[in-house]
């Protein structure tokens, strides 16, 4: 997966929790939020968030809200979509005060783990190809559905079922949507990654930073899901991350930090990925079971869509489906009603070993 903090994502702040603390006989007013799992998020002034330390963001003109959100088209037909429970993403107490953004407090150990993780995956060298399946120096395995048309893509989105699988460091497992152009890409999804989080095996939402995740799907039961989309504003050319069915903007990437993605994207993906070191059997992917073509049992992307010419549409039915291990599989069931998009099911069992 690689360490996803190379490019900054600027966050849009929400609500509040205040703490009064005595310091040197004076009352100091500051804001932070501690989750029940022990993570601490500081409420940082919007203009002082660490992303602005990036040299390409000096004197940046801020566009926290898109100026040209993509249009929706009416569905061609109504097909029942998967029945699932919505995952609510947020912090206790309502979040941070207006004008601030939540930034997870980083310890020295966090930085050491992040550096080691970054070095471990800096050589995610060999591209995933049909000609060389499974031959990745970093021992990553994939099951993905990809676009292949030679057109410009303005975005990608889907409703993702969220799972929690047993993983031992330095392994990880994840499911994500991805937009890319050459070596540059943006991803958003869920992950279990104990290396980055001090050994915890909780499921977390990831983009370029992470937030806590409280619910995950259980095999054979109604799944939990999150709706995520990444798309480019066709006027200011910034990339935006949206969450939930109301398409709430929770962050954006200024176009100036990219080379290829600064203009457009050339492909989109939906799928899963796992990592395990040499000679160590991999963790499972998705639900951790072989797919059964049933959304109560399989990890899935519902209403998988793309944005072309600033319009949310279905991709071509014949997406390129790729896996690089017999342990994992992916399939596209096609239309799944309500809004444009397909139902893509993926996952597999643990035990894959890289070549």
TrEMBL record:
Transmembrane spans: none
Listed PROSITE patterns: NEPROSIN_PEP_CD
Signal peptide: 1-16
Start and end residues of each stretch annotated as Disordered: 58-79
Residues of the Neprosin PEP catalytic domain: 134-353
InterPro entries: Glutamic_endopeptidase, Neprosin, Neprosin_propep
Protein name: Neprosin PEP catalytic domain-containing protein
Organism annotation: Vitis vinifera
């Amino acid at each position: 997966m690689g360490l996803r903090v190379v490019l900054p994502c600027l966050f849009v702040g929400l609500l509040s929790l205040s703490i009064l603390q005595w310091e040197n006989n004076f009352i100091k007013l500051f804001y932070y939020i501690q989750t029940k799992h022990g993570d601490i998020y500081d409420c940082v002034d919007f203009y002082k968030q660490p992303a602005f330390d990036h040299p390409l963001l000096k004197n940046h003109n801020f566009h926290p809200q898109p100026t040209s959100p993509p249009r929706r088209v009416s569905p061609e037909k109504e097909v029942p979509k998967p029945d699932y429970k919505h995952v609510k993403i947020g912090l206790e107490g309502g979040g941070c005060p207006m004008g601030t953004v939540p930034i997870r407090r980083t310890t020295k150990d966090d930085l050491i783990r992040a550096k080691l993780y970054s070095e471990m995956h800096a050589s995610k060298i060999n591209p995933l190809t049909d000609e060389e399946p499974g031959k990745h120096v970093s021992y990553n395995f994939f099951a993905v559905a990809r676009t292949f048309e030679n057109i410009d893509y303005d975005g990608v989105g889907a409703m993702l079922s969220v799972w929690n699988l047993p993983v031992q460091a330095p392994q990880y497992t994840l499911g994500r949507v991805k937009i890319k152009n050459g070596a540059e890409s943006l991803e958003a999804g869920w992950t279990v990654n104990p290396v980055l989080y001090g050994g915890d095996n909780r499921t977390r939402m990831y983009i370029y930073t992470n937030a806590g995740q409280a619910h995950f799907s259980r095999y054979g039961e109604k799944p939990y899901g999150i709706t995520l989309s990444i798309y480019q504003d066709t006027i200011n050319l910034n990339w935006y991350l949206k969450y939930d069915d109301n398409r709430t903007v929770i962050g954006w990437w200024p176009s100036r930090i990219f080379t290829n993605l600064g203009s457009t994207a050339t492909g989109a993906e939906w799928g899963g990925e796992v990592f395990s070191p040499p000679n160590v059997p991999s963790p499972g992917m998705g639900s951790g079971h072989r797919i059964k073509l049933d959304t109560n049992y399989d990890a899935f992307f519902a209403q998988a869509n793309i944005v072309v010419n600033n319009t949310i549409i279905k991709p071509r039915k014949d997406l390129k489906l790729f896996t690089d291990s017999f342990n994992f599989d992916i399939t596209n069931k096609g239309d799944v009603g309500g809004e444009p998009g397909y139902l893509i099911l993926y996952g597999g069992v643990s035990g894959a070993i890289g070549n």
